[in-house]
Design goal:
252 residues, two-stranded parallel sheet
């Protein structure tokens, strides 16, 4: 897969097929001021869903409203990968070589990239977490699935330490360290129980139709690892969006 220098946090329109993994080449949207989330829909007609969409992400997951369901298990088929890291102006993102997969029942998704938010975008019973990782996958038809991993202070994460060691000094310039191998499974908690709902990208153009899997168990990072990211991005989280009657499912 050709690797553009600017691959978006959220990828791009689901219904738009091939445009699903490419970002805007200019960063006129942001998390503050005139480019803040409340203005995203005004910045570009392509961002209409950011204001008018009814299935937007992130959300506040209220566990007392959920009913356990017989959902398929998440099966992660990840292997050590060369490091391709970029600060794209909105987050730190790691682009992934082909060959890493998520299996959900009979659905087969390939991991494209993962990136981070500080603080978390998803809330659970009104509570946020220090950070959140989004692992963005795409199936053969271009449909997206995002695995969200909530991150809290605790034990350090050696893989995160490696990422932060190679943080690019220049924005929008991908750094390739082919001799450095990262273990992406270090982001995944041992317990794969999850919440699931249909939502959207959490960045412009806020395209809907994204399948979300929010892992119930958080992973830990050290306070220093959290502070390193927060030093670059004090707040790159979109506020929670209205549920609008959507069903949120949870594994038993």
């Amino acid at each position: 897969m050709t690797r553009p220098l600017i691959i978006a946090i959220g990828l791009a329109a689901i219904a738009g097929a091939s445009s699903a993994v490419l970002a805007e080449s200019h960063h006129h949207w942001s998390y503050f001021g005139e480019g803040a989330p409340s203005h995203w829909a005004e910045l570009d007609p392509k961002n209409a869903a950011c204001g008018m969409g009814k299935n937007q992400s992130p959300i506040d997951i209220r566990t007392h409203d959920l009913h356990p369901a017989a959902l398929p298990a998440l099966k992660f088929d990840y292997k050590p990968d060369a490091l391709h890291i970029i600060d794209n102006g909105h987050t730190v993102q790691v682009n992934v070589d082909p060959g890493n997969f998520l299996l959900v029942g009979d659905r087969h998704y390939e991991l494209v990239q993962f990136h981070f938010h500080h603080p978390s975008e998803e809330l659970v019973n009104g509570k946020g977490f220090d950070m959140e990782a989004h692992l963005v996958h795409r199936d053969a038809k271009g449909h997206l699935a995002v695995v969200a991993v909530l991150l809290r202070p605790g034990q350090p994460n050696a893989m995160i330490d490696t990422l932060w060691h190679y943080l690019p000094k220049q924005k929008e310039l991908q750094v390739d360290q082919k001799a450095v191998r990262i273990d992406i499974t270090a982001l995944i908690p041992p317990d794969h129980a999850y919440y699931s709902y249909t939502g959207s990208l959490t960045t412009p153009p806020c395209s809907e139709g994204v399948r979300w899997f929010v892992l119930k168990s958080p992973r830990t990072l050290s306070q220093r690892e959290i502070a390193t990211f927060a030093g670059r991005y004090p707040n790159d989280a979109r506020p929670v969006q209205k549920l609008n009657g959507r069903e949120v499912l949870a594994t038993k």
